[in-house]
Structure formats: structure tokens, C-alpha cells
Amino acid sequence: KKYRVLTAAHCVADYDKNTSKTTPNKSHFFMLLEKPGGVNSVHKLEVLKIWEIKEGKDFAVLEAETDEDIPVAVLAKSGPKLDEDLRVVTMPIGSDVGLLLLRGYVSKKKMMSPETDGFNIEGMFVLQVAGLGSGQGSSGSCVFSLKQNAVVGIVTLAKSSPNNHTSLLVIPINKFNDSYKEYLQEEQAKKEAEKK
Q: Given CA atoms 57, 157, 73, 62 in this order, what sign does their dihedral have?
């Protein structure tokens, strides 16, 4: 069975703010499946597609092959509404507690500024997070809507205020859906061309 994993492009690629180029990095990626009883399994991930960060498409898709049955998340058709009840699982860099389940809500539907820290953030929304520990290392985490029971966004940046309040900048899932649909159509066209 093949499983696809959605994450932020800058988690698997290097982005040069001066040239606005996204380049796959040389790292190897693995998926760790934690199971009850401490019997974990590790699966190699192959990078299938990395989109251009300069276009505000900070997302990538990786793929793993395994005989194991893995629960998968459903992707929503659109991003969340204002004040919608959301959850995000993160594993911030330097955290001793491991994975954190955080509660959040959308406080601003769209960013006014088109860029921050060299990243194109047009169309992203702000997720206010209740809880400590979110921040650097949260990138690539999926944001889940309890109402829709589906993924509604991908964390791309974390911003901390002077009083340590963290806001996460999130790409709405519909932006990924559109790009992923185009990618699948391109892959299908390549396969058909190879048959000829």
C-alpha cells in the first residue's frame, strides 16, 4: 500500500529568500508509526512533489510504501470559518514532551501583508493557539477541524509576540487541493504519453 504525506515545502526543501528559489534538500525522510506497547515501525518517505514557496505554495507531498494499515486523515474542500474550533498536533524543536495537541481558532481569515520574512503569505489565515510549546518545529503540521472532521490547513510559519503568545500562519487546504489536482493531471498526462 502506498500512503501520501502532506507537509510544508520548507520542511523538505531549502528556500533562498534572495533568489526566491525552492530547492529540494539532501535529507532523507522517514515516517515513524508509534504503536501501543512500544513496538514502532519506520518507513522511508520519498519526496513526490515540492511546490514553489515564492508562489505562496509552501507545501510538499511525500510517499511511503508499507503493508501496514495506517489511519488517514480526510482533506476538507475548504479552509475553516472564523472562530471554528480547530486542533493541531505539533512537535516543537527542543520540546521534551514530544507531540502536543493544541486547541486553536481562526482569528483573521486572510493576511493583509503579502509577505513576511521573505515568505509569500497571501491567502493564509492566522490560527490563535491555546497552549504553550507551539512555535519553531510546528511547520508542516496539519490543522484539523472538529466540525468538518477533516484537515483544513497546513502550518507554515509561527509568530511569537513579546509576551510569548504564538500565532500560526496556515495555508488553507483548498489552496493545496487545487495545486494537487493539477499535479495529478500532469502525472496522468505523462503516463499516457509514455504509453504512446
A: positive
Instruction: Give the mean model confidence (pLDDT) for residues 63-91.
Output: 87
List, in order, residues 6 or more apart from 74 with CB less than 8 Å away.
Answer: 149, 150, 151
Residue with cell 493541531: 88
How far apart CA 28 and CA 151 sit, in angstroms, is 25
* DSSP summary character for residue 4: E
- Rounded Cα distance between 171 and 17, Å, is 19
Contact 130, 102 (CB under 8 A): yes
Other residues' Cβ atoms within 10 Å of the Cβ of residue 181:
10
Are 93 and 100 in contact, with CB atoms under 8 Å apart? no
Q: What pLDDT, on the 0 to 100 scale, is given for residue 32? A: 82
pLDDT score at 127? 64
Report how far apart the first and last C-alpha atoms of the chain are (Å, whole number): 28
How far is 48 from 183, CA to CA, in rounded Å?
A: 10
Q: Which residues contact 191 (CB under 8 A, 6 or more apart)?
A: none
User: Using CA atoms, how far apart are residues 10 and 13, in angstroms rounded to an integer?
Assistant: 5
Cell 505539533, residue located: 90
